[in-house]
Input
Amino acid sequence: MELNIISLILLYYLKRPMGLITVSPEWKRLFNSGMLIAGILLILVSIWVPVVSPIALLLSVVLAALIVYLTLKNEELHHRKGMIYAWLPLMALIVIEELTELISENLLNSIDIYTRSAKIFAFIWAIGMWINNSKQRKALEAEKLKSLARERDYKITEALKNQLEKQVAERTAELTTQKNNLEKALHDLKATQDQLVHAEKMASLGELTAGIAHEIQNPLNFVNNFSEVSNELLTELKEELQKGNTTEALELAEDVFNNLEKISHHGKRAESIVKGMLQHSRNNTGEKVETDLNQLADEYLRLSYHGLRAKDKSFTADFKINEDTNLPKIPVIPQDLGRVMLNLINNGFYAAAEKKNKLKEDKDPNAESFIPKVTVETKALKNGVEISIEDNGPGIPVEIQSKIFQPFFTTKPTGKGTGLGLSMSYEIITKGHGGKLSVSSKPGLFTKFIITIPNLKK
Output
């Protein structure tokens, strides 16, 4: 009877969930069947049928043995082993006691005191193990809860990680698209800037060409005129020699020599203008050569004036150059420095002419007496040279003087300028020659651009 009671307790314990740990439905069905068998055997043993009792005892022992064997050998029930170990000593004593009773009641009575003591100790062992097993079960349950919490945190972390990876991938794709768009925009901007710079250079070249065409006409006219006069003098010289008038012939020959000197002078002047044009138009090699800046400034002042005259026959202005005779030759890039001078002088003529037109529009009494004027002055410095270009135009307002060297900034009306001239001039002077380009202006009176170039002879 005791063995069946323990079997019922063990089967009930085995099928119960241990916190979060449960057994499969198949094991539950098997344990329920075992409990039914144990209950039947308990009833049979209780009725005490002499024929049935030994068989019921054998079945009880087999059932208990199966419970122990299946629990200890099955991995799914490994967490239930503690309960088996708790009750196993008591179950063994009960089986021994029952078998001894079947063999001999006298033998059982002789060892009864020992079996009772052993069963008491076995029962105490079972209770102690049960309590300890309960603690282990609670610890196992707590560990299982922690494991589930870690698993839940891991899943949440993985979900957040996947979400962040997705967001990073989307953001990366978005940034890549933006980067490609910015690179394309930058490429287009550079291409447009190159076109504008080229257009500015071509405009400068066009103005220079117009000035050269007008300026070169003067020495050519002198060459043609003195050539015609010399031809006439040579004819007269021939006639006088035929007549034998040597004195008059010598005088005519002297006049011819003088004319040839003038033809040579103006021919060299024309050659100088053509060289200047070629230097200005050819690609910049970056090579610096020692240059007479007085001559360079004088040529570009005249070329600027005649270029504007060629474009607008009604344009009139006065110009003057104050040369420092002690100005040394310094290494510069002539065509680049010429572009700067041409741009600044053109701006000066334009500003002074606009001031006159504004006076006329306003019907100012001083309009007729006002003469647009540009003055170029060179000056030798201790470690370089200074070139100033001043006009008597309307001046530049103080609030925009700091902006005039910025790319695309212009005070001219739309279509009259690209806003690159002063920016390019600033780059040529500061970066190309290591100098300075500054402006001084008083609104209503004048504007003066000052170019300072250091003397960097090797």
Summary: Residues 282 and 335 are 8 Å apart (CA to CA).
